[in-house]
Structure formats: structure tokens, C-alpha cells
Amino acid sequence: MWYNKLMEKKSNLLIVEDSPMDMFLVRDAFTRAGAGWEITGVNNGEKAMKALLRQEEYSGLPPQDIVIIDLKIPRLSGFEVMEQIKTSGNLKNIVIIVLTSSLSETDRNESMKYSPDGYFVKPSDINGYDEMISQIISISKKPK
Questions:
Q1: 144 residues of the chain, pLDDT tens digit each
Q2: Contact, 139 vs 35, CB < 8 A?
Q3: Which of 3, 75, 81, 109 has fewest C-beta within 10 Å?
Q4: Is residue 109 helix, strand or coil?
Q5: Domains by residue range for the chain, with CATH
Q6: pTM to 2 decimals?
Q7: Are 132 and 26 contacting, i.e. CB atoms less than 8 angstroms apart?
Q8: Taking phi first (over 0 means left), then psi (-120 to 50 degrees means alpha), and beta for anything else, what does residue 2 get?
Q9: Do 55 and 63 form a contact (C-beta atoms < 8 A)?
């Protein structure tokens, strides 16, 4: 079962975020949470797909278990990346978490077309990041 795989090994997490500060905050919150995460970060959608498909400079990466993705990223948007994940046979079981600063209902509704496993608006403080990461860890342990 997928849950058991997560518990037996380090989970591989891809963070797709173009803001260096937001990338730091997410990485830092996962580090504080403990759980043994192997974290890779990229700053645009094109690199996200290369990392997920383990192409070019990402060929040595292990398969990713979770992707946390911002919607408003360069090259390929978060929406486009989610669409490619959902249509790729090799990537269908990746847990997708949307992490955005957008409060737009349109963005939320558009995201739901790709059935993400979680949708979060970026917190305004460190405690909010810790609470959010705790929820993401719970989501990631549920069978797909």
C-alpha cells in the first residue's frame, strides 16, 4: 500500500515555487516537522516536469511522492503542470498539493479540475506554515 511505502522510506518531495522566501519557508517547516523528507526545489513549471519525469539534470532524482506547487510560476503554470501530471501514466499517483497566495475563487475552481490532494493559501506566519505542513503530512499518508 502507498501509505506503507511512505512509512518505510524517506518521502521524496518536490517543491515548485518561484519565490525564494516561500521556498525557504516550506523547506524549513518540513525540516522542523522531522519525518525524513528528501526535498528538491525548482522555480518554474518546466523544471518541475523535468524533475518529475527525471530528465536532463534531474535524471538522478528518485521518483517523487509529493509535489507542492504554486499556481503562478513561470514557463509552465501550476495549472499546466497539474494537467501534465494527471495525463501522464507514470505520474498519476503523485500527491499534488497546491500552495498559492491567490485568494481567487477562479484559481481555486480551476485547480479543482485537476483534483489536487490539497489546496492551501500561503500562511502569513511561521506557525501557519507549521500547521499547514502538519496537514500536508496527514494528506500524504492517505492511500491514493
A1: 334 444 456 789 999 999 999 999 999 998 888 767 899 999 999 999 999 999 999 999 999 999 999 999 999 999 999 999 999 888 988 999 999 999 999 999 999 999 999 999 999 998 999 999 999 988 887 776
A2: no
A3: 109
A4: helix
A5: 14-139 (3.40.50.2300)
A6: 0.88
A7: no
A8: alpha
A9: no
